[in-house]
Amino acid sequence: MASFEWFVSLRYLRAKRKQKFISLITLISILGVAVGVMALIVVLSVFTGFTEGLRDQIIGVNAHVLVQRFGSTITKPDEVAASIKTVQGVQATTPYIYGQALISSATQSTGLVLRGIDAGSAVQVLGIDKKMVAGRLADLDKPTEIPSIVMGIDMARQLRVGLGDKVRLISPNGPLSPMGVLPKIRTCMVAGLFETGMFEYDSTMGYVNLETARSLTDLRQGVHGIEIRVHDIDAAHRTAAAIQQVLGHEYSVRDWMQLNQNLFAALKLEKLGIFIALDLIILVAALNIISALIMMVMEKNRDIAILKSMGATTRAIMRIFFYQGMLIGLVGTFLGMLSGLGLCALLKRYKIIELPSNVYPMSTMPIKVVPFDVTVIALSALLITLVATLYPSWKASRIRPAEALSYE
């Protein structure tokens, strides 16, 4: 019976002279499904590529996991780091001191997010060493007459300084005097410049060694926290949970997703919105499928009555038209996947679209094809087209042979 239903379905899809208009609607339906699937694959691949590029830029400056102590500093960072390294998945650790200061040159001044680091271990945790355009991060630990500082290239432009120039760091965390709080002032030499591609970091962040940071803050011993690099970035939340169990509830352990929760939650919601919006293209194609099948049912009214008179069951008639809609959906989905993946491959290989570097953290259109996304797109397209065939198939199965043949 199944072969009979497939045979009739394929026979009805072949256009006769009187059915050219129905065939045109069928072709438009296939193209509509294909365009919708192609648009979804390309747009979601670009969006995923942009999200991962943004993630890599953020993580390139920050650690995968951050450990802090509630209400206090970490007074024994070496012992805490040793406990952290016992956790499976941890690659390296480094201590840090965080502060804010005013930085000034001979002509300009601006605010500074000050980060004190141990340069030897920081290069194993942070990706800032790979972003250096002048100097090296390791130069922070070199013994010099005056402390060294590594700053973002946009901050250097604003201050009009370069390698070897001197700047002053002014911190409000000074001693109390009869005149009020006296600021702490340290003169530093620019030992390196970095460029992350993100203006927020390149224009506000500066790195010094731990001793210099400690002298500019009210921190006499210990550090503010420990930054951690893990082997698998996608499993950072599981590693963070394991570190939390080792250290106990006295410490706060957060992975990179928690540290940037609002940003990535907004991107995830935006991706879902794009998926729903572009699915409407497939929905329009599904309406064309309904129109084509209904017109075909009306055209084949007499044939359906004859098939029923010859013994075809109601379910067999439903399956005939259901198979037609399914074929339209399968062909459209296959063509859409083929064209979408092909277009993504072309955009990824030839870098046709270039992005302004002063606006986006990447120079070319990012493409990241995720098999799960492609699978969801294909299944959603097939589901929409199959649902669209239900009413015409049911309508065809309700035709009564006596009524249909009485007008012939």
TrEMBL record:
It comes from Desulfobulbus oligotrophicus. The keyword RNA-binding does not apply. InterPro entries: ABC3_permease_C, Lipoprotein-release_system, LolCE_TM, MacB_PCD. GO terms for cellular component: plasma membrane protein complex. Pfam families: FtsX, MacB_PCD. Residues 26-245 form the MacB-like periplasmic core domain. It is a multi-pass membrane protein. This is Lipoprotein-releasing ABC transporter permease subunit.
